[in-house]
Amino acid sequence: MTMDLQTERCGVDGAAAAARRVIDALVRAGDISGADMAGIADRLNAVADDLEAQAPPLRDRLVNMWRGDGNTRHDPAAGPENPIAPPLAYTGRPDGSIESDVTLGLPYQGPPSSVHGGVSALLLDHTLGVANGWAGTSGMTAELTLRYHHPTPLFEPLTVTARQVSVDGRKIRTTGAIAAAGRTCVTAEGLFIAKPLPRPR
Amino acid sequence: MTMDLQTERCGVDGAAAAARRVIDALVRAGDISGADMAGIADRLNAVADDLEAQAPPLRDRLVNMWRGDGNTRHDPAAGPENPIAPPLAYTGRPDGSIESDVTLGLPYQGPPSSVHGGVSALLLDHTLGVANGWAGTSGMTAELTLRYHHPTPLFEPLTVTARQVSVDGRKIRTTGAIAAAGRTCVTAEGLFIAKPLPRPR
Question: What are the residue boundaries of the RHA1-ro05818 N-terminal helical domain, all occurrences included (chains A, B) (predicted)?
Fold first, then answer.
């Protein structure tokens, strides 16, 4: 085992990955599982009790989670520390775009066996923001338009891409898409306003 | 204790509520907590192992989670069975709109101490869909436009509202908003296409 793997297993990332398994298994179970749900609730509440007893003050955690000026690790789309996030992991491409491959399960369902349109919106909004950071000029989302061309399948590899298109004064325009097996399912156009975003210090 | 409370505590809803506490506590902890994260990961993986060992076949669960023709209980915005969902709970209003009050914590963060723009998009997309169901004509999201007017605060009561505006042939137009302390933070306009959506049987 390499040190990297060991670090991942022992840190909050490993606990978040385990929490993702719990989320998926609970949605899979619903109320037709043979599992002892009262016992499961007791065990999860005990974990939450132990974590809360050791929790840092909120202010300290806010400073900590926003340390540095680059990417953060806690957000609900790409944050390895956040069990809500799939999480997306990005690769920068030479043309200035970014890309993430992901397969989504039942907790992200909208229509039967399809990704929830709002989940696609969450992943695209975040990815457009990361594309802005990759291009060097970031901003706050002012307007986001999503177009749904085809259902986005669950349980199949998806590719989420985004690219900064233009910067005109404070106005940043960025586009993105989610595709499955080469077919575009959702496209996004975002208008962002460049402004310094103070981080908690 | 009433029977209703007992049912909730013992079913999957109680386990999902406990999983929400774990998600919140993990994001609060990050890597500056004194908690034994390797031990936490082991305990969560053991819960996932037990749930997975009792999991119904996926096909059975899909039929089960889509039973009936009304609202479902598993989605990532309002589903009490889904730990990712806050979850929103809706009230219909006499004017045909619907409303949900919710307070969001750290797992839903975008900018510092503010709700992630993509989370607002998720909650609004879903709420527009519920407003369509409430009005009697539902459809699939074709286009969704979000406008971000002010940061949406974490840790403060939010009101999410939506209303079906028009039905013209198969085209449904629906609007919604998220407000905090009476101030509109995000607005949404959706175009939905009415079509029968076959449910797994």
Answer: 7-60
State which amino acid sits at residue A21.
Answer: R
With beta carbons less than 8 A apart as the criterion, state whether B82 and B75 touch.
Answer: yes
Residues of chain B with CATH 3.10.129.10: 63-193
Among A61, A82, A141, select the one facing B117 at the smallest CB separation: A141
A76 → closest Cβ in B10, B116, B151: B116
Inspect the interface and report whether the beta carbons of B21 and A44 lie closer than 8 Å.
yes
pTM over the 0.80 mark: yes
What top-level class would CATH report for the domain B63-193?
Answer: alpha beta
Q: How would residue A9 be classed by pLDDT, with cut points 50, 70 and 90?
A: low
Tokens of A52: 């809360």
Could you report the per-residue pLDDT of A183-193, keeping only the tens digit for each? 999 999 999 99
Taking a contact as any Cβ pair under 8 Å apart, which residues of chain B between 105 and 164 contact chain A? 106-113, 116-119, 121-126, 129, 140-148, 151
A33 with B19: Cβ contact below 8 A:
no
Indicate the residue of A15, A28, A122 with minimum beta-carbon distance to B61: A28
What is the interface pTM, i.e. ipTM, of the complex?
0.95
Per-residue pLDDT, A71:
78
- Residue A194's φ and ψ, nearest 5 degrees, are -70, 125
Supply the pLDDT for residue A149. Answer: 98
SS3 assignment, position A28: helix
As averages over each run of 10 residues, the pLDDT of chain B (201 residues) reads 44 97 97 94 98 95 89 94 97 93 98 97 98 94 97 98 97 98 98 88 83
Start-to-end Cα distance in chain B: 36
Do the strands A183-193 and A158-168 form a parallel or antiparallel pair, or are they unpaired? unpaired
